[in-house]
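Q: Convert this sequence to structure tokens.
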Amino acid sequence: MRLRTALLVTTLMAAAPAAASATTITGPYVDLGGGYDLTQTQHFKTNDDGDVTRNKVGHKSGWTGYGSVGWGFGNGLRAEVEGTYLRSNLSGPTGNDGVRNKGKDSSYGGFVNALYDFDLAKFGINNVPVTPFIGAGAGYLWTQEHHSYTGGGETAAGYRGTKGGFAYQAIVGAAFDTGIPGFQVTAQYRLIGQPGTFRNGQFRDASVPTNETSVDHRFNHLFMVGLRYAFDTAPPPPPPAAPIVAAPAPLPARSYLVFFDWDKSVLSARARQIVAEAAQASTHVQTTRIEVNGYTDNSAAHPGPRGEKYNLGLSLHRAESVKAELIHDGVPAAAIDIHGYGEAHPLVPTGPNTREPQNRRVEIILH
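A:
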């Protein structure tokens, strides 16, 4: 029951949310923690001058602590050196009626561990501030036993001593980012096994020094929380700068003005240059037709109504001159519409019978 409860607590902690994004360790780090130690019931045998007695010893809830220094390689792999301490009290019947175990035992030593952090983003799980990890370690532990028996109102000395030997461990857990660069909270389960020496090693009977007691394979189930700090943790790189896109080249103008001398419809050199620009632009912008509109100012060689009629014809001649030049510059004649508006729509308002150069014009409009 205790084992299932501790496993549930560790699982819930591993599912707890945090407020930052997951961190991959690169460079040195330190890790400190502790928690609950559940040691499985062990069996032991005592050799009393050839008379072998077999019994068992149970363990109450205990505690554990560890400290480690390590190095992260930036790809999920980590290596570390760890020092650890385990402590539990003895309890339970020995197998003889009315006789119970009493005392304490502890283990201390170190491990070399190899671990791997899982980047959940590689599995399509993004923006989760949790980094699961697994690992394994090998090392050396010394176990110190202080054991006695109680029964019938009396306490008898049991076996005593300290023995060392090979130990191994399996590790599974998760690290939670705290929002402080480099700091993480960890929750983990570890299974530590101590074989070999403890099966064959001998503890001395405290009451009969010639007696020898050996204890079988030892298993510790550890449920721990810890604090880990990575020294070289840097904030995530900024997002790449947006590419610099050159401003699009300005589109050619869609209207052009050609100016004329007074009472003339002949194109000047500058006028021919502007018409050529309009013709060239018509090939670079989407154009369905070209409108050519001719105008005059309100002065006339012939005053009165006859002058207005004259200016209307003059504006049309100017438009025809521009059309001919456009055709000369490669514009299809069918794409050109011409109009003569005479004195209407002046570019610059003036009084009557005024010579205004800007009103003596043709406007080319690309549609």
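The chain has four helices and 16 strands.
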